[in-house]
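dude i think i finally got it to work??
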Amino acid sequence: MAKVNVIFYSMYGHIYQMAKAEAEGAKEVEGTDVKIYRVPETVPEDILIQSGAKKAQEQFSHIPIANLDSLVEADAIIFGTPTRFGMMAAQMRQFLDTTGPLWARGSLVGKIGSVFTSTSTQHGGQESTILNFHTTLLHHGMIIVGIPFNEPGLSDVSNIHGGTPYGASAIIIQGEENRPNEIDLNIAKSQGRRVAEIAKKLFG
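look at this
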């Protein structure tokens, strides 16, 4: 079976919701084994409590913490991170910075890599975050998979939503919902399905 791992960092749960959609799409492809991991939190606990993030993170506290084996065991890895000033979150960057031994051995060469993200504003740097992330994946020799424009959500101009050809994204508009909208989640699901389909062709 082709192994697809979704590895994410989420502070308030928005990227976790996207990660679940990615995994749901990947699981639709028969002959794939899909797992979800989260990268370690680095923010001090008192700050997490003060910001409300500690409470929000309870919803995914059951998800196992990613380690280097979580990368090596997979044929395809879908990474999820919120955007921080047009780049990946520091927690994800720190996790990736521990992968030097894998780079030295070429452990990730030929594996599939794909990325999704979220921002709190419409022009918050979604595309730059994903493209910056791709640089690390290319250094590891990974095969990057995005989303083609035959995904209907990418061409929908009647609603404000995320989604790029580089990877799924969400715009988190503060309010009662405060979550990725259905278009964002459907694009994420489509990305997961596409990654799994390609992984099955290459490794299944």
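The first strand starts at residue 2 and ends at 8.
im so relieved honestly
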